[in-house]
Amino acid sequence: MRNAFAEVITDLAKTDNRIVLLSGDIGNKLFDKFKEVDPGRFYNCGIAEANMMSMAAGLSLSGLRAIVYTIAPFTTTRCFEQIRIDVCYHNAPVIIVGTGSGLSYADLGPTHHSLEDLAILRTLPGMRVIAPCDAEELKLALKQALEGDTPVYIRIGKKGEPKIHNDLTSFQIGKAITVREGKDLAIISAGTIMPEALAAADLLFESGISAEVVSMHTIKPMDTTYLQQAAGRFKLLVTVEEHGLIGGLGGAVAEWRSLQNISVPHLSFGTPDEFMHEIGSQEYARDKYGLVANNIASKITERFKSL
Amino acid sequence: MTLIDDIQQKTRVLRARIIETSHRASMPHLGSCLSCVDILATLYFSVLKLDTTNPRSSDRDRFILSKGHGAPALFQVLAMRGFYPEEWLDNYGEDGGIFAEHPPTPDYLAGIEAATGSLGHGMPMGVGMALASRITKEAYNVYALLSDGECNEGSIWEAAMLAGGKKISNLCVIIDFNKWQATDRSQDVMALDPLADKWKAFGWNTIEVDGHNIDQLLEAFGQFPAENGKPTAIIAHTVKGKGVSFMEDDNNWHYRIPNAEEVERSKIELGIK
What we know:
The structure holds 2 protein chains of 2 kinds.
Chain A: H1 2-15, E1 19-23, H2 32-37, E2 42-44, H3 49-60, E3 65-71, H4 72-75, H5 80-89, E4 95-99, H6 117-122, E5 128-130, H7 135-147, E6 152-155, E7 177-180, E8 185-190, H8 194-206, E9 211-215, E10 218-220, H9 224-233, E11 236-244, H10 249-260, E12 266-271, H11 282-288, H12 293-306
Parallel strand pairs in A: 1-2, 1-3, 3-4, 4-6, 5-6, 8-9, 8-11, 11-12
Antiparallel strand pairs in A: 5-10, 7-9
Chain B: H1 3-25, H2 30-47, E1 62-65, H3 71-81, H4 122-136, E2 142-147, H5 154-165, E3 171-177, E4 180-181, E5 184-185, H6 186-189, H7 195-201, E6 205-210, H8 214-222, E7 232-237, H9 260-270
Parallel strand pairs in B: 1-2, 2-3, 3-7, 6-7
Antiparallel strand pairs in B: 4-5
Helix pairs in contact in B: 1-2, 1-3, 1-9, 2-3, 2-8
């Protein structure tokens, strides 16, 4: 996904000379082609994320479009006040890109996990929060973010994430995409955990439960039109994200349900309120926290049968 | 009247207005405002390339009050410079207004480039604005006024290292070095000295001046931008509460609000009726 980011931002920079790419000393060789387009619009800002974020705001308040790129926790929680004040309070159209979403860097330990970013950035006035499920969504989200003029956070994976969409022609920030249609319940997924959601739907189908699978790539503003009609059509809403259970996609859906007095049951999959004190691959970590198709399908089946 | 005499006369009027406003609207940070008045007046009445009829013109010089708590001084200077009528300041501190302790965002008041107040943000934003001119080919300079206490913030030194490394020569930082921060001598809180040497070590040209001497300030600004391509840091030695004998170097005036009698005594000292 990070290769897709580098490719698409390089392409966009060829025709949009407002684009300035700031990197927090990561992506060795990743941006060589971008630098060939215009070396004067790429800056390695060093391991100094607070300054990088303020600089991005300054650039974006001067007619340019700064894109900040580093590992998700360092471009979000590390410099949260800079995002809050310099970017959001000024409504500076900075695009913040966090790579290595969720447990992508599970083996690097919790310093490199990002399981709070969606929750935290969602609280900021004017901030749009996007977690594309694959490279296709990422490309279109970036293009659309550049067409707008407000702050955007885009949370992406690392590399090798499977392609979900074959031919995605229509993409709109804030509008969910139905990946698979179903009749009994909806699995609403955000980000690169999508393959597990789809595999869970396959398992459910085998046991006679028809699950719709939706990419809720935009956590804010959330597609409440979809949620509203899904609540009318289905017996159960399921949210799946590689993020803490507090405040992310599941949290946002729970807030919406409560405020709208929606009675349809909601089952939320995410990570618990803890740091992971052991080392393992992303697959290991996902399995540990039940973010795998088998567990998702069996928990859904159990809940669905109890309704 | 010479330029220096004119600026000095303006600073007396500005000081009186700042003190009166502090009393009327219960605005703190009086000492911090009085220590930077001469720097602000020199910038706005001689140095900055501005057009008050087109305050957002793309080639304007940018001034950022990184020490946002000096806003009561900046608001008076901007009004006197003609960005908005001085009468606007009559509702200072009133509910629903714009004028309080810190600058609003640029969309809410002409002349403001950054909404500061949390220290350590303005100057790094200025680094981005200065770098933008290199990309957009618009010729302008960026000035950021910092407090010595603000130099506690790590983000200032991140920005200093980047601007020095990338040789952002159209960036000028002025440090209002009044030797105090909110609750203590700045040198006793952290190892601030030698302040000029620190900036020099980060790749900046450094100039030390008496921050109340208009002549010295003008000369320092005249050396910017430097021909060697480095950004410039002007270490302005100042006195907190400058201009009023019973406020000078007394850190109680960081938060204290003057009473009516103190306002009158101040105005007499400043020669303002």
